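Service request form, structural biology core

Requester: graduate student, group of Dr. S.
Request type: structure prediction, single chain
Budget code: on file
Notes: please return the result as structure tokens.

Sequence provided:
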Amino acid sequence: MLTKRIIPCLDIKDGRTVKGINFVGLRDAGDPVELARRYTNEGADELVFLDITATNEKRKTLVNLVTEIAREISIPFTVGGGIREVDEIEAILKAGADKVSLNSSIVRNPELLSLASAAFGSQAIVAAVDAKRSNGSWEVYVKGGSEPTGIDALEWMLRTEQMGAGEILLTSMDRDGTKAGFDLELLAAVNSILTIPVIASGGAGTIQHCCDAVIKGHADAVLAASIFHFREIEILDLKEEMKRQGISVRILN
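Core staff response, request fulfilled:
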């Protein structure tokens, strides 16, 4: 089994880390630079930074904050939110990010994904998908989960792989912030049709939820926010239990 990754997520609004339920009801979760430093020291495998209001506010991602966080960490760093042009991707990567996450912009303009992959390599491009259950399947939402698109999520993720995405960041809007567990049916469905890695997001509440995302949902990585921000689960405790259940993980010596 390939090593599975644990990825804390920093949802950023007005320069602060926030967390809500089903994409609403945001509450403050701390300073993003301090959290980033803490997660590096605690053994996180990667870090994701999502500027969650950039698209709705029609502005660019907070590049200065990206630079500040990148200086503090030594793990791979993915940044998303409000990125609409190839030159903006270049600026984020130069600011210290290892990957960029593209969501609303590639739904509106799929060519951006192909151009970005060609320019920077598929390993630097993550297709983020916010999916919500609809009529027996899942529908893609954009603009921070506020706008339905009518696009089938499974079909869209397959298309992003074909256009050059190196990884999928899949968030179940139905489970986001609920701590009720990941949408295992959604994860299993997408992993049955894709060959690129899929990061499970939305619903982590217990250590077992994270194990199930890998064992039953076949996720390559588990992303979570509030359970780590508020120290409900320690990263080391999670990894040690995953290892006990036969999941290959990286544990710091």
